[in-house]
UniProtKB/TrEMBL annotation:
Signal peptide: none annotated. Keywords: Cell membrane, Membrane, Transmembrane, Transmembrane helix, Transport. Belongs to the binding-protein-dependent transport system permease family. CysTW subfamily. Its main location: membrane. This is Phosphate transport system permease protein PstA. The keyword Metal-binding does not apply. Residues 62-280 form the ABC transmembrane type-1 domain. The keyword Ribosomal protein does not apply. It is a multi-pass membrane protein. GO terms for molecular function: phosphate transmembrane transporter activity. The lineage of its organism: Bacteria, Bacillati, Bacillota, Clostridia, Eubacteriales. CDD domains: TM_PBP2.
Length: 292
């Protein structure tokens, strides 16, 4: 086989692999949206499960998912950002750095169900919070923290060294260089990583089964004070998310028209995750052009 034939064969194999992945993804998305679009309407998106004869709406589940997302990102982003800055700018090759990297890689490879059991022991039982949105937020933070650290480290190390050297040569301190030069330059990559991390949180279910719970009180949206038991902003109440709701209705089959509710919930979840990924790429490109 000559070089030209080998090159064509390899190119064809690469194209075949890429097209197979694209076709599989389009089939899955199309199948879910086709069946779920028949169920989705305004009442389905805003009503609680007891208000629709077909089996219930997903209004509280959508709110719980976004509320859990916000709490988790408030915990994960500051810690991951500081840890990533340390790994990129302050850490020196040695035993301590090797231990930290090993811990990060181990956390990144843990199955979410294991993190859920860990959260059950630490955040649910030992803290006394019980099944709560706050416990679920901490469990999700454990899952996403390695990803945020890696994104921060790679975004900062990807900045050209001339920027850092020029800032230091002009008399700026190391911290001023990080805050005024490195972070603004790495901002597009950071934003993209944060948005993708948010999409992963929205679709997580296994870790939340043992931390946030599979039930939700009747939310009273006229009570905004977080200390009120049925307030939607109470972090110590249980909160069933959309992904957990899909698993629950399929496993228990206690409501009428289970298939319709599950299809509609899955379609909404797919749409939200797709929007997160599209938004991440759009923000990344826009910020890259603006910074450039």
């Amino acid at each position: 086989m000559n070089a030209r034939t080998a090159d064509k064969l390899a190119t064809g194999m690469f194209w075949a692999g890429a097209l197979t992945v694209i076709a599989l993804l389009l089939f899955l998305i199309g199948y879910i949206l086709y069946h779920g679009a028949k169920v989705i309407d305004w009442h389905f998106l805003t009503s609680p499960p007891t208000n629709i004869a077909a089996g219930g709406g997903i209004g509280p589940q959508i709110f719980n998912s976004f509320y859990l997302l916000v709490l988790s990102m408030l915990i994960t982003v500051p810690i991951g950002l500081l840890a990533g800055i340390y790994m990129a700018e302050y850490a020196k090759n040695g035993p301590l750095v090797k231990i930290i990297r090993t811990c990060i890689e181990t956390l990144a490879s843990l199955p979410s169900i294991v993190v859920g059991l860990f959260g059950l022991i630490i955040f649910v039982n030992m803290t006394g919070w019980g099944y709560s949105i706050l416990a679920g937020a901490f469990a999700l933070s454990v899952i996403n923290l390695p990803f945020i650290v890696r994104v921060t480290e790679e975004s900062i190390t990807g900045v050209q060294k001339e920027y850092k050297e020029g800032s230091l040569a002009l008399g700026a301190t190391k911290w001023q260089t990080i805050v005024k030069v490195l972070l603004p330059t790495a901002f597009p990559g950071l934003i993209t990583g944060f948005v993708i991390s948010a999409g992963r949180i929205f679709g997580e279910a296994a870790a939340l089964l043992y931390t946030a719970g599979m039930s939700s009180p009747n939310l009273n949206f006229s009570r905004w004070l977080p200390t009120y038991p049925t307030s939607p902003f109470n972090p110590f109440r249980p909160g069933e998310t959309l992904a957990v709701h899909i698993w629950k209705v399929n496993s228990e089959s206690l409501i009428p028209d289970v298939r319709a509710v599950a299809d509609g919930s899955a379609a909404v979840l797919i749409i939200v995750v797709l929007l997160f990924n599209i938004l991440a790429r759009w923000i990344g490109r826009r910020m890259q052009k603006r910074m450039g």
